[in-house]
Amino acid sequence: MSRTDAILKRLSQLHPKLIDLSLDRMMPLLAELGDPQEHLPPTIHVAGTNAKGSTIAYLRAFLEAAGKSVHVYNSPHLVRFNERIRLAGTLVDTRRLNATLEHVETVNAGRPITFFEITTVSALLLYAETPADYLLLETGMGGTYDTTNVIRQPLGTIITPIDLDHQAFLGNTVAEIAVSKAGIFKRGSKAVIGLQREEARPVLDRAARRLSIVPVWQGEDFHCSRQDGRLVFQDENGLLDLPPPALLGTHQFENAALAIAASRHFGLPIDNAAFERGLRNVTWPARLMPLHGKLRDLLPAGAELWLDGGHNAHGAAALAVALAAMNQRRKAPRVLIMGMMNTRAPADFLAPFKGMVSEVLTLTIPGETNAHGADFITREARKMGFEARPMRSVVTALKAAAELPDARVLICGSLYLAGDVLARNGTPPD
């Protein structure tokens, strides 16, 4: 076990629950550390169910193309914990990460605090200590009581599409979940809101207006379309004709548009040339990502291997659209290799793929005690009419997929599975 893993294991044992949404444990600890949340660069706070990471990836790409240095906070990580904390453009150095985690652990002095709370405090301390032009801050879960919701006056807030997820903590309806997400709105901070289901719209609107915020809404105040393969964006400031985003899938046009609108509404120093460079250079691992390397070599030459960390119904719907578009360009048998955490229903994820895939090969995510078993996912898939069978590992699943000539294989269902795949493939995020 590495030193980082040993520290993280200790921190995970400070509270009996993995998730206990509250800010009451964090605030005293932050105060003892000098309130680092009060000493951050201009911050853009992002909440939502889907597309948070992609939207932040675009914002980072635009700002860096404009010559700005950017902190980023994302979760969960795929392979290494360092991926969660990007300092002025570079993943945090392991030695500095360890020193900061141990310092915060010492100051906390054994008091109950969740893993995500104490690691977020550590991240905020690192961001306060390191000069940068901007901080892009992703919520972990919800908004009101999320550990990141300690920024009193962000430069701006973004709400990406809201859907059903984490119902045990956030509510059983989209409207209830929207109440939690809207908790990141702050009086005096601007807000941009992505495409929303009908139930979420009035909730977000009321929450914003209570704080005298007039949000900018995707689909009303700004629009994007795909024309001749290019991204055409329009808001009250005019029209932009831009190259397509480097991230694949039709949904990425909408995600890019949300980031462009936020950049313009928040007054970020990004010109058209920086938007163009950012769209061409943006990266976000395990989001409809073509996979090359050791695992790809298990498939025959004519096959394709894709990896996506999508894990809920909304993400599955976007993936299904992307697969359909791929099939228009080249028809191929489609195989899902799928693992899921037990907080989500396999049937909800699989529904958008009905009639689209030749077979579902199921996995138990390695090392995850809260993962669905492969046999359970197989039974659920068969109930829906899919051809499905359980596999011992991603390697055996790929060998089974290789039986179909020229197959298009998609590994999906969980970010934890995506991280395991990237580690096995020898291609962790930089």
From TrEMBL:
SUPFAM superfamilies: MurD-like peptide ligases, catalytic domain, MurD-like peptide ligases, peptide-binding domain
GO cellular component, one term: cytoplasm
Secretion signal, residue range per the UniProt entry: none
EC number(s) given by UniProt: 6.3.2.17
GO BP annotations listed: tetrahydrofolate biosynthetic process
Domain Mur ligase central: 46-262
Source species, domain of life: Bacteria
InterPro entries: Folylpolyglutamate_synth (IPR001645), Folylpolyglutamate_synth_CS (IPR018109), Mur-like_cat_sf (IPR036565), Mur_ligase_C_dom_sf (IPR036615), Mur_ligase_cen (IPR013221)
MF (Gene Ontology): ATP binding; dihydrofolate synthase activity; metal ion binding; tetrahydrofolylpolyglutamate synthase activity
Keyword list, A-Z: ATP-binding, Ligase, Magnesium, Metal-binding, Nucleotide-binding
Reaction equation(s) it catalyzes: (6S)-5,6,7,8-tetrahydrofolyl-(gamma-L-Glu)(n) + L-glutamate + ATP = (6S)-5,6,7,8-tetrahydrofolyl-(gamma-L-Glu)(n+1) + ADP + phosphate + H(+)
Name of one Pfam family that matches: Mur_ligase_M
Cofactor(s) listed in the protein's UniProt record: Mg(2+)
Family membership noted in the UniProt record: Belongs to the folylpolyglutamate synthase family.
Protein name as catalogued: tetrahydrofolate synthase
